[in-house]
Protein: Aminopeptidase N
Amino acid sequence: QTFYLKDYKPFGYEVESVKLTFQLSPNATKVHSAIRFTPKADAEDNRFFLHGEQLSLISAKIDGTPVTARLVDGGLECDVPRTSFLWEAEVEIDPAANTALEGLYMSNGMYCTQCEAEGFRKITYYPDRPDVMSTFTVRIEGDEPVMLSNGNPTGAGEGWAEWHDPWPKPAYLFALVAGDLVNHPGSFTTKSGKEVELNIWVRPGDEGKCAFGMEALKKSMKWDEDVYGLEYDLDLFNIVAVDDFNMGAMENKGLNIFNSSCVLASPETSTDANFERIEAIIAHEYFHNWTGNRITCRDWFQLCLKEGLTVFRDAQFTADMRSEPVKRIEDVIALRARQFPEDGGPLAHPPRPEEFQEINNFYTATVYEKGAEVIGMLKRLVGDDNYYKALNLYFERHDGQACTIEDWLKVFEDATGRDLSQFKLWYSQAGTPRVKVSEEYADGTYTLTFEQSTPPPPGQPEKAPRVIPIAVGLLSPNGDEVRATEVLELTEAKQSFTFDGLASKPVPSILREFSAPVILERETTNSERAFLLAHDTDPFNRWEAGNALAKEVRVAMVLDGAAPDAAYLDALEKLVRDDEQDPAFRALVLSPPSQSDIAQTLHERGHTPDPQKIYDAAETFTQTLAQQLETSLPRLYAATTVEGPYVPDADGAGKRALNSRILSLLTRLDGGEQAARQYASADNMTQQYAALAALMKAEKGEAQSKAFFEQWQDDRLVMDKWFALQIACAAPETTAATAKELTQHPLFSMKNPNRFRAVMGALAGNHAGFHHASGAGYQLLAENLIALDSVNPQTTARMCAAFQTWKRYDSKRQAQIQTELERILATSDLSRDTHEMVSRMLSA
Ligand code: ARG
Ligand code: ZN
Structure:
């Protein structure tokens, strides 16, 4: 069944209030619901249909009288009065058998829920759609020491607890948690003086991993007040860490539930990257309280209304807490690695899709990350003041509502007087625009001409030109900035912009801060790229110049068997040795483009990427770079080593990132001596992990890998690192075998998404290993996806996307992948989730 945006119809009934009673039992939980419905006078459709899946209906009553409900596909129907009535139902569910981790399920003996997007219908019969909002009162009966739900506690006693959430909400924000939990407490006083009790709830033993998350939460609350003027609206804010979780985290009202990997942190067990990610996700979920909960989505087609905006807000937060340019560079790397391939392949869809079979398949990089890019463009086009003016209007006008992208754009139009009809194409068109740039200089006038086009994804129409904000600055040949950043608005298919009064032909710095999610195509030289790497005043474009240079060098190595470009190696050496430069920036410039990125670049230029050749070029390049830097590496290593107690701040993280890059180069030359010393003396995971990774990459880490296992075998999150690292470091010909062996390991499990992703995600992420000519990587992933599908469809479907780039490769690999995709599709009882993903990949 396919659902369409154009078919939207409001529900015919108002839900006045919801009262739920849970009698908890692992295999037979009873859920009693008492829901007051009032028929809408103006309803176009008064069919009384309630969603429900995998429920055993015990009884149904209307106004106290038993009724017979008709069970239909996906729910039930019932004849109901034309006036307000009380619906009561009792159902039984089996949380312990729920391995899909959607609805009410159990994780390590603890009850928890995940209702977004359509999990509430596995808890009770209900109009499970985001535009149906109501207040919830919840009573939990059971013998669990801690029993939580949304909102404020209203009573508790031996074997029961009651909760009331005064804010009307859609069912997808419902949450319940019960189990043996301990809390790390905190508090926050809001700007209007209200004290909010904060808690992070964890399993006993994890208490020591909560402090960082608590600080991140307080910083988020303060930041949202300072920057957006938004205050928290309940007396209590709870976060719970759960080991078995399909996604990162969930913004349930007043009761956020987190994948434990996205909240638990300690210096001994978490890397700098983990700390940064945890801080960002805590902020993201907290920010949803306004952008998502107070203002929610009318239907799931509007998902990017809350996700794009909330990702945009959490990126602003991270930029403010840490380094703005570093955050931007990291985000663009991620966008190109995850969203561009999606947008250019068979799974392409606009940020606001118009059809889906399974909405869980649309929690994508396009909805989230491109959704956030679209908001960044909007902000750049209207300016900061107008942006916040529009946002104020959004909160004022739509608080308590379930909204659409049209509502969102309308507040910008009303606040700024700007016509956004062309801008709206960003929401409705799929595909990454390509922007071709050419230049002309004569008599002091410099002209930039842009041409935009978007290759239409199969089955989609020709694309109309979009509004593309292009931030441009000009540099003189001696490196001075002669024109500060200016935003050019490209609105036509082809358009020119001129700059007068220039003394000589300038060097342009185009798409500063990556002002639009496009592919820029411009004929330029490596010496101009090196010039920008040295002189651009925009840090993003300085990095971008280095990145483009690195790509050119690597592409030339792959295509012509060229040696690594000497001028580039010199430029790198100069930058790495320049202690005036920010270490985090140097670390980024020193991190080569990923092999999959090179494959994508080759594909964009009409070549068929050969993963083995790309791998060999990467190896040769890194080895040559190590040799070039040989004499300075020991000094650089010493100079970038961070002494003293570990602090997970941006400064330290930047230094450690550079130090780790240098260690990995050094390890190629010194037989692993320095890395072994670092491994032995490390008192934090960042340095321990960096040393282990360097050693394993050089095939010198067997002893340390064993020791690591011994030390950390009881820590599930650290063990995920151990599983993933072995596969990430494996040579192409042994990657699949390594992954296969790890699936036989006693600690491997299909039931824990983190562990499954650690192994299968690392397999898919090892470009040359996954795409090894034997086809063993494809086969292993397909086998495991087939096995996982009956356990956990959502995670299976998500991981199928590893195959989305298949049309990039040669016909032999395409045939191998096609065989695997067809094998998956032929599996009996394949889930709707996986079926949709695989058939989309096959049909394009
Ligand atoms: N709304 C959550 C977040 O972005 C993601 C939950 C998605 N869950 C799902 N089953 N698709 O913070
Ligand atoms: Zn979100």
